[in-house]
């Protein structure tokens, strides 16, 4: 399960299942953190390692069953890459300025979001994201619903 799932793997198009409360998710979470670190990602979602459950990581923030409960009406455009689209995110680059704009995808996102879910110990968690963090939260949650950068390239 530790292999990074790359586009056009059909699992990236699937809707992920809710995780039942009190499920031990430690193996999936540890794998997400390891793969994110190995590939220098800002975030990662469970389907990107082949686990079809609703878990995301943004930096070191772990959210099980995340859901956006509030989104600003103000929108912004961001350039995004994705670990499952290697051409948009150089595997070993820590400096995003190494990418040309043509390598990434321009995506319209809510400028601010509020996300609720559970941490790895099943305690309720609420996080707010603005600008890049808000975009990253939205990007990872989209993965759980089978939405990828390929969908944004077509818009």
SSE arrangement:
Elements: H1 26-38, E1 43-45, E2 55-58, E3 61-71, E4 75-80, E5 105-110, E6 112-118, E7 124-130, H2 131-144, H3 149-153
Antiparallel strand pairs: 1-2, 2-3, 3-6, 4-5, 6-7
Provide a brief overview of the structure:
With 155 residues, the chain is an alpha+beta fold. 21% of the residues lie in helices and 28% in strands. It has 3 helices and 7 strands, in the order H-E-E-E-E-E-E-E-H-H.
Descriptive notes:
The protein has 155 residues and is α+β, with helices and mostly antiparallel strands. The protein has one domain (10-153): Peptide Deformylase. It contains 3 helices and 7 strands. It has helices at residues 26-38, 131-144, 149-153, and strands at residues 43-45, 55-58, 61-71, 75-80, 105-110, 112-118, 124-130. Strands 1-2-3-6-7 form a 5-stranded antiparallel β-sheet, with helices on both faces. It has a two-stranded antiparallel sheet with strand order 4-5. A hairpin with a 2-residue loop joins strand 2 and strand 3 (61-71).
